[in-house]
Amino acid sequence: MDTWKFYDITHREHVVCNPTSEEKLTRLVGLLRLPTNAQVVDIACGKGEFLIRLAEAYGARGMGIDISPFFIADAERRLKARAPSAGITFTQMNGADFKPDEPHSLDLASCIGASWVFGGHANTLEALISMVRPGGWVIVGEPYWQQEPSGDYLEASGCAREDFGSHSSNAEAGERRGTELVHTIVSSKDDWDRYEGLQWFATAEYARTHPDDPDLAEVPERVSKARAAYLRWGRDTLGWAIYMFRSRSAA
Q: Quick check: helix, strand or coil at residue 227?
């Protein structure tokens, strides 16, 4: 079935499409203290919640980019309902293709939970750093291994050991590239349970209300497999954090 239809079905109950609670997203937005009319971009923006909150809090202007037509449509609906006059646009495209009009010109560039867009955490940092001005924010969300993953978990989840590093290596990657790590927002097991559990709930609701969907058999099967891997191994093995890096000001 279509990949983005699958994620639309499984994330219908989510406001934030990663293992971060809305309360922690509020903390992130508050800590940024952006100037009025800050110029921002959010790569793989999902339903646009982060950008909409930046517009509400600071009058931020800029662009949200996502490859999913479902998420872009949802983001546009949310923007129209909550901040219709904001200088925010949502665009469906591959985030790796985005380039600001001028390098090192944005106040904030983020990619929260989609480092695959750029081919990994290190490449994501390099891409975002090239977009922000001195003193600008680079915000990334990335999983990390809480413990050594078992071979059974890697096979069941479809992950590879080299896909992720440790919490400390995620942080050090930004500092090695000349940014300053100023805060991390780490997800709890409750945050993970909410993120995963809402996918199970959304899938069950969709199956109940769309019994004639020809793709229906595939969705519960995939979600059931992921649920089993999460409950048996993933809950104790995979962590998640949002890393707040700041580009160092020019001397």
A: helix
- Residue pair 95/68 in contact (Cβ under 8 Å)? The answer is no
- The tens digit of pLDDT for each residue in 115-148 reads 999 999 999 999 999 999 999 999 999 999 999 9
pTM above 0.85, yes or no: yes
Cα separations in angstroms, 66 against 30, 55, 114, 250: 24, 18, 10, 32
CA distance linking residue 5 with residue 241, whole number of Å: 26
The answer to whether 179 touches 148, Cβ cutoff 8 Å, is: no
Residues 20 and 43: beta-carbon distance below 8 Å: no
Which run of H or E residues covers position 70? helix 69-82
Does residue 250 surpass a pLDDT of 80? no
Tokens 């793989």, residue located: 44
Q: Which residue(s) pair with 64 in the sheet?
A: 42, 90
- For the chain, which domains are there? 15-197+239-246 (3.40.50.150)
